[in-house]
Amino acid sequence: MRIRATVAAVSGALALSALAVPAAHATGSSGTPYTMNVSFSNLKIASAIKVGTTNEVSTTYSYTLTHGADVNVTASDFYTDAYLYRGTMDDQSKTLEGDDFATCTVTSSTTETCTGTVDIYPGDGDLKNADAGSWSVAAEATAFNGQDPNNPDLSKVGFKDQGSLATTNVQRYSKLTADAGPEPVKKGATLTTTGKLSRANWEDHLYHGYTGQPVKLQFRKAGTTTYTTVKTVTSDSSGNVKATATAQYDGYWRFSFAGTSTTPAVSATGDYVDVQ
Fold first, then answer.
1. Neighbour tally for 98: CB within 10 Å
2. CA 107 – CA 100 distance, rounded (Å)
3. For the chain: N or C, fewer Cβ within 10 A?
4. Which residues are bridge partners to 183 per DSSP?
5. Cα 57 to Cα 48: distance, rounded to the nearest angstrom
């Protein structure tokens, strides 16, 4: 996980101490941050984030920030963003966030529309294979109120962290191939299509076969635009798939995988076969 800015560590400390602070708590001298009058709503993010083995993946999010008139969201020391987390808000086992904070556009005297990105670096070890699946989305805001972010008085720092605003699936990027033959083939003869279903391994940064998965053999007749499912086969212990069919028309053969919560759907590029 990348460090967003110099206040990231401070925000983490505020998140822990804010758990014991009543919502109506005001600025005091206890060294505990007060909870600002801000809330987050209408958070939008992709339903799935596909992550490969090495390339950075950036996913855009947006949300509405609502605040009291006493909160100066245009101050240079006010920060807000959204992030992904696993576990509960009290016990987050893992988080994914952006390289930068969100940018907000004023829509009224008490609301802003904020946008930003969650940036994931699989090549740097941001993810383990077990991290694939559903993640929750939270948003946070921090106001230093004119203080030095590197040495703040926590009693004068405003902080708000709100979870369960949305969910998204972080998935291991998938690949699928198809090779049909013989080429050309006689009409009425048996045609065999082979391929392999694989997905990203976030721990060794390679692609490995995805085993025991249903994969559809599909055909598209030359001159048409729609694929039709011919049969369904299961990937073997190496992710390989193989299916036979009777050749009747010129056209394209491919495999198609519907996907799971941990692995996105994928279809191979159609392989054209001439029937004579």
1. 22
2. 22
3. C
4. none
5. 12
Using DSSP, state whether 218 is helix, strand or coil. Answer: strand
Q: At 15, which helix (H) or strand (E)?
A: helix 8-18
Distance between CA atoms of residues 123 and 127, nearest Å: 9
3-state secondary structure of 27: coil
Residue 207 · residue 199 · CB < 8 Å? yes
What's the Rg (C-alpha) of the chain?
25
One-letter identity of residue 145: N
> Rounded to an integer, what distance in angstroms lies between the CA atom of residue 170 and that of residue 86?
11
pLDDT higher than 90, residue 172:
yes
Token output for 169: 């699936």
Residue 75 · residue 63 · CB < 8 Å: no
Distance of CA 18 to the CA centre of its chain: 28
Q: pTM of the prediction?
A: 0.87
Q: Residue 18 pLDDT > 70, yes or no?
A: no
**DSSP character string of the chain:** ----STTHHHHHHHHHHHTTS-TT----SSS-PBPPSEEEEEEEE-SEEEE-SSS-EEEEEEEEEEE-TT--TTSTTEEEEEEEEEE-SSSEEEEE--SS--EEEEEETTEEEEEEEEEE-GGGT---GGG-EEEEEEEEEEE-TTS-TTS--GGG-EEEEEEEEEEEEEEE-EEE--EEESSSB-TTSEEEEEEEEEEEETTTTEEEE--S-EEEEEEEETT----EEEEEEE--TTSEEEEEEE--SSEEEEEEE---SSS--EEPPPEEE-B-
Q: What six digits make up the tokens of 156?
A: 């004068």
Instruction: Tell me the pLDDT tens digit for each residue of 28-40.
Output: 344 677 788 999 9
The structure tokens 């030359």 sit at 222
Burial 146-168 (b: 16+ CB within 10 A, else e): eeebeebebebbbbbbbbebbeb
